[in-house]
Input
Amino acid sequence: MIQSNRLVLSLLALFAFAPAATAAPKKGATAPATGAPKAAPKEIAKPAAEPPHAAAPAPVTAVAPANFEELLKDGVPSRDLSRDLEPLFATCAKDSDLAYRQCETIRQWHVERIKGARYVASADGAALQAAPWDATEKSFTLTVNGCLDCQNPIQLGGGPLLLATKAPRGFADGLPIGVELSDHEVGAADAKKAKKFSEKTLPRLRVEMVFTVGEPFEMGKGDAATKGLAIVALGHRVYDRCSGEVVASSPVSLKAKEIPAAERDPSCPAADAPTEEEVAEAAEQAQLPETLSRADIERAMAPVQQRVIECATEFELNGVARVSLSVSGDGQMTVKVAAPFDKGEANICIRQALKEAQFPKFKKGKPIPVEYPFVLHP
Output
């Protein structure tokens, strides 16, 4: 039990962080609201001093949002839920009837405000589970749990408080059981990409939820009992806490989550830092020669000689077949065969033979032209 004056001051302080208000209503009027109408308020004893008034958040409508960004429009961002939800568990001292009624009026206003609000908050790590990569389906299955703080319960109401869609049936390896919201399939085309996702992306993923506040619940008995507060999950998205990239959401998310610089996780790489792929490519390029040597060209063309001779025998070719190659730094090439062997099946045969040439990599830049003659006889 806290002192009335202390609670009044505390609730008044909380009011400063309530959703943005419009013009204050006239004395005795209820706070205006948009959307579905609320039931008429019950008569309460008038306190000596009027409680603060502000426009209450628009109540959540039954119309399903088209996307996650639309769901966010009326959301109240929260980074400290224990502070935002404190009035739900506050009590008023009964030392003075007048002070008690004043305190209760203010507290009830905050309770109605909280229960009429749509909150947006990021959950802790227990909100997301990932099954191993399925090589057949070529995807990961991400399971989103309806629990905001199952790993680190907030301290509220005199002890730890779970914020979940309902009381979990229990916990396994620190993860809640029985509060699953939905499964999402995230593709990974091959084992290499799956390994990268598992090692680099997965540890960075977080779940952001949009929810309203429900009623208290309790799980367990006696000293092992855990108190909780039910939330009604309206939507969620799974995002990379470093880049903001959204990998899964319900409803669909149209863009990445904005992560202000002040909220950026210090363990994340700098926004302008090169990617691991760019670093690896730069290291590889540093080890490559500037261009192809004549010896490189001879070694690449040696296996082709016999195949071209076989073409000459098959099509009774005679003369010198001059070919022009354009070789890029990654070893790829384009081929052109000069007349008179630039047409027909003979041309196709020679071009197919040239595809067996394998040039070593060299530093990226302009492709290198290679002229190479083949002496043909039937």
Observations:
- Residues 244 and 260 are 10 Å apart (CA to CA).
- The mean pLDDT is 83.
